[in-house]
Amino acid sequence: MADDRMNADTPVFAIAVAAELAGMHPQTLRQYDRLGLVVPGRTRGGSRRYSMRDIELLREVAQLSSEGMSLPAIARLLDLEAENRALRRRVAELEHDLREERANRPGVRVFAAGTSGSVIPVPSGRRIRRSTEVVLWRPWVAPADPDDTAR
């Protein structure tokens, strides 16, 4: 049953095993932890426990380091990648919310002012009697072709 809860973020590997899986010395993992490059989970006793995602990150750090990138530059790159992932998640959430909002709105809405000054929605396709109502707002729809903006 415990296997059902395990995923790539579950911290299970002791430092010696993680170092072997990443192809590094355990002292390197300790230094990366101190620098904040790869921060593993901790047991109640304070021992480091690495997840598979941590192992992948250690391998990425090793690759970047072998290509000549400094550890501060790698730290900055990892921060920017994390920020990018968070922003992409937020954009996806907002796009989802927008799609839901549009799906819950029936068609294009038009509003009119009644004779008493009240704002009333006008169902799509209904003609407005100009003598008693004036159109106040109609949603603007962007043209498919940028050259069509002059119309």
UniProtKB/TrEMBL annotation:
UniProt keyword annotations, A-Z: Coiled coil, DNA-binding
Record-linked SUPFAM superfamilies: Putative DNA-binding domain (SSF46955)
Coiled-coil features, chain-numbered ranges: 77-104
Tagged with keyword Coiled coil: yes
Keyword Ubl conjugation assigned: no
Domain HTH merR-type: 12-80
Listed PROSITE patterns: HTH_MERR_2 (PS50937)
Alphabetized InterPro entries for the sequence: DNA-bd_dom_put_sf, MerR-type_HTH_dom, MerR_fam
Name under which the protein is recorded: Helix-turn-helix transcriptional regulator
Source species of the chain: Microbacterium capsulatum
Lineage: Bacteria, Bacillati, Actinomycetota, Actinomycetes, Micrococcales
